[in-house]
Structure formats: structure tokens, C-alpha cells
Amino acid sequence: MSDDEFQALTPTLQNVLDQKSLQWVFVGGKGGVGKTTTSSSLAVQMASVRKSVLLISTDPAHNLSDAFGQKFSKDPTLVQGFSNLYCMEIDPTSSIQEMIESQESGAMNSIMQDLAFAIPGVDEAMGFAEVMKLVKSMEYSVIIFDTAPTGHTLRFLSFPT
Known about the structure:
The protein has 161 residues and is of the alpha/beta class. Helices cover 43% and strands 13% of the residues.
């Protein structure tokens, strides 16, 4: 489709819900602007028109558990009261810790732990790895990202594929 043929849609919730080709939605912005509220509301609405919806929080200050009144983890978990809405909260610190604990114990393990937590951007990299696992399998008709504040998200999105 050329630029001449492109017709902009009116920015409405209904137009977003009607876009069957939409596979990813990123809800972003500065801290405190309502990203979690918006992404949670959108996920609930999408669940009414899609086969399966995954809502992922990449924000270290995970609030999806608060929004839905249910504990979520790094694994997609079915939201209570829904048959097709799943949530997960990526915790890069625990992902790094799991990687370290899976290694042999000893002095090398301690060095690896110190090194892993000292590398700038390692939390975004681990979060990106978790997301890429799910995107590659694409078991969901749409994935909605409740992103971290803008600075974190820009670093997260800058990782190579």
C-alpha cells in the first residue's frame, strides 16, 4: 500500500478492537501517566473480541498484580474471571538470579553473580529474552505491553532481534 492509498483511521477504541491484523500493542509514556490502567483496560476489551490475549508488564514496578487483584509471575497466568486473558510480569532480577543458581556453586558462582548485576542494561536484556521466547511461539492473537517508563523502554527496544 503506497502513502497515497493510506487512509488514517479515526483514533477510537473501536478501531483498535476491529484491527484483526494487530498483533502487538505497546502502551508507553512517562511514569505516572496511566500506562498500567490503559494497558489493563485495553487487554480486557481485546479479550472480548480476540481468541487469546497476553498482557506483559516490562515495568520493574509491577502493577498488573494490583490492577487485577491477583499475583502474576514471569510465566503467563490466566486472569481470574477470563478464559482467554493472560498476564505476566517480567522480573529481570529473578531471571538473572535463576541463571546464576543453575550454574555450579563455588567461587565462580559468586563472581558471576557480582558480574551479572554490574553489567549496565542487563535487566533490560533479560526482560527482552523473556519476551522474545513468547513472541517466537506467538500462541496469542495479540500481545499488549505495559511498558516501563520511557527511558527503560527505549533501552529495552534498542536490543537487537
